[in-house]
């Protein structure tokens, strides 16, 4: 299966009638493996800051998580595994695998829990596959 199929079929799938706004699979080095059509253009330093928070949990909390210039307030996650952020009526979930970051962005009426489930389910599957 191509990486684009993982984004199209798994991350951008419908859940309870809702869809993520955008999603991507990004290598730890910031290289795009695959992304949805409207995924924000991000800066390498934004991915660097996210990767740093996985090795030093809590480092993003004071400044917020930035992706594509958009700031998200960091909320509860799983240190070293999942970062979750909130911004107005939407938010972001980032799941770290051995080789990649699985990123999902949502807006209401999708709930944070629905976004978490989509992103983390694919991340767990890819971890099981060695990715």
From TrEMBL:
It holds the Pfam family Profilin. Gene3D superfamilies: Dynein light chain 2a, cytoplasmic. Keywords: Actin-binding, Cytoplasm, Cytoskeleton. Its main location: cytoplasm. GO terms for cellular component: cell cortex; cytoskeleton. InterPro entries: PFN, PFN_euk, PFN_sf, Profilin_CS. Belongs to the profilin family. Occurs in many kinds of cells as a complex with monomeric actin in a 1:1 ratio. Binds to actin and affects the structure of the cytoskeleton. At high concentrations, profilin prevents the polymerization of actin, whereas it enhances it at low concentrations. This is Profilin. It comes from Apostasia shenzhenica.
